[in-house]
Amino acid sequence: MNFLLLEPDECAGDGDSVIRGRRAEHLRTVLQAAVGTTLRVGVINGQLGTATVTSLDANEANLRIELLEQPPPLRDTLLLAVPRPKVLMRMLAHAAAMGFARIVLFRSWRVDKTWMQSRALDTKVQREQLLLGLEQAGRTQLPELLRFDLFKPMVEDELPGLDLPHPRFVAHPYAATPTHQLAAIPTASGNQPGFTLAIGPDGGFLPYEVDKLIEAGFHAISCGPHALRTETALAALWGQLDLLRQRK
Amino acid sequence: MNFLLLEPDECAGDGDSVIRGRRAEHLRTVLQAAVGTTLRVGVINGQLGTATVTSLDANEANLRIELLEQPPPLRDTLLLAVPRPKVLMRMLAHAAAMGFARIVLFRSWRVDKTWMQSRALDTKVQREQLLLGLEQAGRTQLPELLRFDLFKPMVEDELPGLDLPHPRFVAHPYAATPTHQLAAIPTASGNQPGFTLAIGPDGGFLPYEVDKLIEAGFHAISCGPHALRTETALAALWGQLDLLRQRK
Predict the structure, then answer these.
(1) Looking at per-residue confidence, does A8 or A234 come out higher?
(2) pTM for the structure as a whole
(3) Structural domains in chain B?
(4) Which chain A residues are Cβ-neighbours of B31 within 8 angstroms?
């Protein structure tokens, strides 16, 4: 079923809701809704439910909203070395769709300095990408975004205060545990369920950087001897860690 | 270590090899090679080894090649409903990096007809994308590419002759087995090791199409209740199936 994500000011709760302009047009042309159509809806950072279209033209749609469920708790944190701007945009959408609660963007040695000034670091642009990912996946919770421009102060001074969930993994092709040898991941370890996954830049972390992350409680893992692009590695490793978490 | 992929006519075997033009320039500026640099090399559809740069200028590089190993046997087949052209280009590179032996492109009901005429269906363009993926992953074997424009004749008449490896999976978000409940995948089942993975278009297969694939020996699997983009789903599912294959 198609999924429509509503801004909180479009939907105060159960009852009638109006959407306008480009979004009404999207509903009509892309989601091919008509009067009587029922859609799955979610409110950004809020509940999930259904909407029935009660009227619809090119400018405006009226919806009867019924909010039915709380979104699932999000647990995982992604540490991501800033990739090329276009790739970052896509990876933000991917990460939101996968259900990361937090995305920590940072600069490491092999991150091009100019990428830190790109449009993809603009929080408004990032929000749009995150919303695309949420809409794709039928989720409502926007991941929290953090940004650190210096690697060493991040690891030494900032990470300890972030209370990153355990286990913590850093993707690293060399001297790492193959993911197929990892033990199952406990589904809830006290009050810090979930996992942390750190992904380096294309070309990888420096050995020094991996060592700093290991000191901070990360385990080096690898999904095989063939290096993958960061975008592919994120999805492959997330899939594997999520499977290990759910497998009894 | 950086990896350089050579055309067979650039490298007849062990001994000296010359590369020219844009590729010599790439070696010098992107891979930052100099005289004496040793690189990992591979010959397209051939062996892997090392190359030492013996001379290098803007137009030409001379390499001393030593071929040391056969590439690993490739086993897996990807059936991919043709996505939007830009996404297809990226997914071909991803699939080559993941080590698929064969990629079967096809049209299903929700594949836009115009996408079948796009530049991304041009075999020369596709080869470039595959080479990018191989170079990224340090692989040499080009996946075989097949294309079918009609779904029903493909499943009924063509698939039986392709001898697709078992187990066969089709990604389908509904009424499917969650991947974390799958049994371990046997590493070699007689003379047909590997697996087959079918990925539908955004919006998914029709129920009729899934039923046809199930009749053809496919199992419907899902990596969770949240639909992912085909690009994310490919990497996540490949990661999970590869892990289940390697896990003892």
Answers:
(1) A234
(2) 0.92
(3) 3-69 (2.40.240.20), 76-246 (3.40.1280.10)
(4) none
